[in-house]
Amino acid sequence: MDVAISRSAVTGRVRVPPSKSYTHRAILAAGYADGATIHNPLVSADTRATMRAVEAYGGSVDDRDAPLSITGFDGRPNVPDNVIDCTNSGTTMRLITATAALADGLTVLTGDDSLRSRPQGPLLDAIEQLGGRAESTRENGQAPLVLGGPIESGSVSIPGDVSSQYVTALLMAGGVTTDGITIELETELKSAPYVDITREVLDAFDVETERTESGFAVEGGQDYRPESGEYTVPGDFSSASYLLTAGALAADSTLVVEGVYPSAQGDIAIVDILERMGADIDWDRDAGVITVERSTLTGIEVDVGDTPDLLPTIAVLGAAADGETHIVNCEHVRYKETDRVAAMANELDKLGGAVTEAHDTLTIHGEESTLQGARVAGYDDHRIIMALSIAGLSAKGTTTVENAEHVDVSFPNFFATLDEIGADISR
Ligand SMILES: O=C(O)C1=C[C@@H](OP(=O)(O)O)[C@@H](O)[C@H](O)C1
Ligand SMILES: C=C(OP(=O)(O)O)C(=O)O
């Protein structure tokens, strides 16, 4: 499905979808428990992959609309009857790799073309350090993966600069091992707030984890027990970033975004980034409401070490701002559904943006950029598609984004939501 977006104004009130990261963890935590009811879940292509995995390990998921009623496998995953297809979801594949290592037998994990090109090597190495079997069928550190357990407990040493999801996977599985898992980080941890999200969800399921001097640790022999059997997912700040950017670039008067309460999400930084760029933005934290007005923006420097998923959004803001926007510390953003640093450099260039790409930085020269509608590729990547669609709202003329159906991964109602607030869109 190609989507055409013409320059138009947006206004009104919108609600953000529930958080993808919290939903994945809550579903899997309910699987590690004997079950739970998950309120306000994100039901999307990626979270459905995690639901299927919980079922493959012996749990069940009823009512795939809110709330989700999950029966768990109680810390003891079955050997799946079939290969588990994680489709496009890196979070699913990393988190359930460690689950597979708890089962007494072999599990095979695969995914789509994109997921089968993403790095899994450090996590496979960690499973081997714990005495499990962990193989990449093509011996290139990528899926398809063959995992065998059961691992019992132990210490692992892994790099922290490829994906934080390896740490999340080991902490979640470690709680139900005999003696726990200690994780030593060989490098600085990138995407660190995602481990904070994990620890927050584990705490809500009564599983204790620890930040140590050199990494993290989780004691074994713990039971996943959600308080009163329930868990409620907060709103998603990565998804909110597209709506807030739409407001800052194209609001008629104001755009009001609802369902945005404080949580451990690093992508809350979008509020501060917009403020630093000069946007007129106000966050009522108690009410969970952000109000943003169309604003004249100025380029800034942003370190995305903690917030890789904001890179496409910030690149679009930079192309619409005056002056230079310098995005630094972004090498890990190249390991996502696509190489998002290169994708944004290529596609903003087609829209008239002046961009300089280096290995670990992306610079957008706002003063040399005048956004003009064009046909752009979506790279089958939800975040590239959503960011370019918002660029299309403020570009002169019409922007066509190819294969835009992939928004289904994290924000299934994205185009319907833009439509509701007045964007000129044809699908
Ligand atoms: O754990 C998570 O929920 C996520 C962690 C981040 O990945 P990395 O830790 O691989 O950077 C982020 O980019 C991804 O969208 C979701
Ligand atoms: C990178 C992302 O997710 P995942 O790693 O789960 O594929 C994302 O949602 O931007």
TrEMBL record:
Binding-site positions, 3-phosphoshikimate: K20, S21, R25, S163, S164, Q165, S191, D309, K336
Superkingdom of origin organism: Archaea
Localization of this protein: Cytoplasm
Keyword Transferase in annotation: yes
Keyword Ribonucleoprotein: no
Class in the EC hierarchy, top level: transferase
Domain Enolpyruvate transferase intervals: 8-418
Classification via CDD domains: EPSP_synthase (cd01556)
Reactions mediated catalytically: 3-phosphoshikimate + phosphoenolpyruvate = 5-O-(1-carboxyvinyl)-3-phosphoshikimate + phosphate
Involved pathway(s): Metabolic intermediate biosynthesis; chorismate biosynthesis; chorismate from D-erythrose 4-phosphate and phosphoenolpyruvate: step 6/7
GO biological process, one term: chorismate biosynthetic process
Chief location of this protein within or outside the cell: cytoplasm
SUPFAM superfamilies with a match to the protein in the record: EPT/RTPC-like (SSF55205)
Residues annotated as the enzyme's active site: D309
GO molecular function: 3-phosphoshikimate 1-carboxyvinyltransferase activity
GO cellular component annotations of the record: cytoplasm
Keywords: Amino-acid biosynthesis, Aromatic amino acid biosynthesis, Cytoplasm, Transferase
Similarity comment: Belongs to the EPSP synthase family.
Quaternary structure and interacting proteins, as annotated: Monomer.
Protein name, entry field: 3-phosphoshikimate 1-carboxyvinyltransferase
Taxonomy of the source species: Archaea, Methanobacteriati, Methanobacteriota, Stenosarchaea group, Halobacteria
Gene: aroA
